[in-house]
Every structure is written in C-alpha cells, then in structure tokens.
Design goal:
The protein is mainly α. The protein has one domain. It is about 70% helix and about 0% strand. Helix 1 crosses helix 2 and helix 1 packs parallel to helix 3. The longest helix has 26 residues.
Length: about 100
C-alpha cells in the first residue's frame, strides 16, 4: 500500500530533522533514522524539529535554514515558515474560542 500524504510529510519531517542535527554535528536518534528508512515506521518529530530550529543561533540558522544552495535548506526554510504560520493560527483559534 502506498503511504498517505500525512505519512509522507512525517517522513519528510524526519529527513529535515536529521539534516538539522547532522548539520550541527549531532547524532541522529535511531527512531528518526528508522522513520527515514521505512515508511512503515513513521513518527511525528515536528515539535522536536521546531525546538531544534528555534534553538539555533543567528549564524547557524542562516547556514542551515537559509542556504539557498542546498535543497534540504530550501525545504527546511519552507517547512519553518509553514510551521510558524500553523502556530500563529493555532494561537488565534485558541484565543478566539475563549
């Protein structure tokens, strides 16, 4: 059976998370590597990826996220902008629901 769109996005998130970690010389956790290697094993690492990017200093952020020469960086930059927008909308919805 083919992976769903959600499974493919979770798989891509794991790839991006691994890119951020390896770009900093950090080890990729086995569960993230398993997600990258196998569509049957998907995990949601979005929050971990968000926290890792948010914790980057300005220079490292520019090198890893805003490097227009690398496809991974361009994909990560797009993911970062979409995730920030998702968080903004979630805040608006939760404050409007009160």
């Amino acid at each position: 059976m083919n992976p769903s769109n959600k499974e493919m996005q979770l798989h891509k998130n794991c790839q991006l998370y691994a890119y951020v970690l390896t770009s900093q010389g950090k080890e990729v956790p086995q569960e993230i590597q398993d997600c990258i290697d196998d569509y049957e094993y998907v995990i949601n690492c979005s929050e971990d990826l968000y926290k890792e990017i948010k914790g980057l200093d300005t220079d490292t952020f520019e090198i890893i996220v805003n490097n227009k020469e690398l496809l991974e960086s361009r994909e990560l930059s797009y993911w970062w902008e979409m995730y920030k927008e998702y968080n903004r909308i979630q805040r608006e919805l939760s404050s409007g629901a009160r």
